[in-house]
Amino acid sequence: MAREYAKLNLNKMTRVLSKLNKSELIDSKKVVSKGIRTAQSKAKESNCYYCGTPCSSFCNSHTIPAFSLRNIAQKGKLFSANKVIEMRLVEMEKGVKAAGTFQIICKSCDNTIFQEYENPENYLNEITSKMLAQIHLKNTLKMISQRKMEIQLYANIQFGNQGKFKNKINQMDLTELEEELAYAKRKINKSYKGDYQIIFHKKLDYVIPIAFQGAVVLPIDLKGAVINNIYNANPKHKMKWIQMAILPMEATSEIILFVDKGNIRYREFRKQLNSVDSLEKN
Ligand SMILES: [Zn+2]
To answer: Which phi and psi (to 5°) does residue 47 adopt?
Structure first.
């Protein structure tokens, strides 16, 4: 039952929340916000997670490049993914500045290590391994930051055995994410064609109203066959992540799904995705 656990819990929590009245909801929000703030401050690093330099003021790094957010933002606000999953505890609308941010690298790194992929002009040509490595790196840093915060959150005594179990899973994730990070870091410094396999890439000739960037572990493919056995809690059975970026440009949009070179678990999924009729893909 390993990693499925979190998802089931979220569904249960969403059901419970939908039954609360307004004042109960406000109280719950306060408790959760306080818990998250405490966990965030405990999880704070003392050095930049990329270059290792001692750092007192971390950059508020955006997961989705600001140019993409600006292309879809209405009046400076945009809907976060919470709107979609109806998670009522977190504010549904966020300003462009606060959308999907993490704070574990220094400002100098944030300004330099994502430059190629954050430049819309680079999408006029073929997407390079370096750009993919930068997306991979940022997705992984965000996941590491989240897991570290969750570890502090679930270490809270009130979560009891549930918290201990959740943190065992979080630690396993963290170990795997560190390996992902090491790969992305190597490829940022020296990348070759073929370092990443594109699972799916589509350039749309219109601006889609949603932006997303992140890494996910897909449990099954389009035919229901297992890609990652999320019920296997053995640390030797590693989860394989797929990197995703849905980026609205000024007049077009990019949809990119990719994995690192050695990741063969998504082979069938890749074939399935690319054989679906293009109308369905859109
Ligand atoms: Zn740095």
So the answer is: -125, 155
Please identify which residue in the block is written with the tokens 């009046």.
75
Identity at 251, one-letter amino acid code: A
pLDDT in tens, 107-144: 999 999 999 999 999 999 999 999 999 999 999 999 99
Q: How many domains does the chain have?
A: 1
Distance 103 CA to ligand 1 centre (A): 11
Type of residue found at 100: G
Domain carrying residue 116: 4-281
Distance 44 CA to ligand 1 centre (A): 14
Q: For residue 211, what pLDDT is reported?
A: 86
**Nearest by Cα to 228 from 273, 259, 191, 256:** 259
User: Taking 80 as the threshold, does the pLDDT of residue 243 lie above it?
Assistant: yes
Backbone angles phi, psi at 224, to 5 degrees: 90, 5
- Give mean pLDDT, residues 139-155: 89
